């Protein structure tokens, strides 16, 4: 069983230590212990610790810009047991509605794999967003995406210049790719309508 582990903030491991890495293809609304409900993406990582394997489930919380780690309650497991624990971890995410995909890092050369691993927040961690900024962000944005979402998120709606009082806000990964998701949905809708 996976249990919440607030002591882990990042995975300070190298690409050579990673045995398997899964990432969610979608974001879901989750509520972790002592956290508000919010959209999150998920990662499942299995890595070497001496002769054993450690498996962690990680939630990348969009509103708080933070990571929530769950670790296997029995700690590190043998190589033979790791497959069953990975299956349990995939079930853990899929029960919440996540669609997990294997990133198959071993299919790339070591430099490409290292570059990809270091681009994920698991390696370097995240700087949590202050509470007042999160509440302001929620009240400003609401739950719906404005019609011209990309311009509104960047603070430039139409030809308007941002006022001096406005401070630039860092976009969450979810917000950064929202425009592409909307375009993909529109293209898929047109494709399905053509049948």
Description:
This protein is an alpha+beta fold. Helix content is 34%, strand content 23%. The protein contains six helices and seven strands, in the order ββββββαβααααα. It has helices at 79-94, 110-119, 121-124, 131-141, 149-153, 173-193; strands at 2-4, 18-24, 28-30, 38-49, 52-61, 66-72, 100-102. Strands 1, 2, 3, 4, 5, 6 and 7 form a seven-stranded antiparallel β-sheet that branches. A hairpin with a 4-residue loop joins β5 and β6. The radius of gyration is 19 Å and the shape is globular. The N and C termini lie far apart (45 Å). The model is unreliable at 142-164 (pLDDT under 50).
Briefly summarize what is shown:
Helices cover 34% and strands 23% of the residues.
Rg from Cα = 19 Å
Multimeric state of these chains? single chain
Morphology:
globular
Count of individual beta strands: 7
β-strand percent reads 15-25%
Overall helicity = 25-40%
How far is the N terminus from the C terminus? 45 Å
Largest sheet: 7 strands, antiparallel
* SS class: alpha+beta
- Our count of helices gives 6
Order of helices and strands: EEEEEEHEHHHHH
Question: pLDDT below 50 for ≥5 consecutive residues: which ranges?
Answer: 142-164
* Overall pLDDT: 82
Chain-wise SSE layout:
Elements lengths: L1 E3 L13 E7 L3 E3 L7 E12 L2 E10 L4 E7 L6 H16 L5 E3 L7 H10 L1 H4 L6 H11 L7 H5 L19 H21 L2
Antiparallel strand pairs: 1-6, 2-4, 2-7, 3-4, 4-5, 5-6
Keywords:
single chain; 195 residues; alpha+beta; seven-stranded antiparallel beta sheet; 6 helices; 7 strands; globular
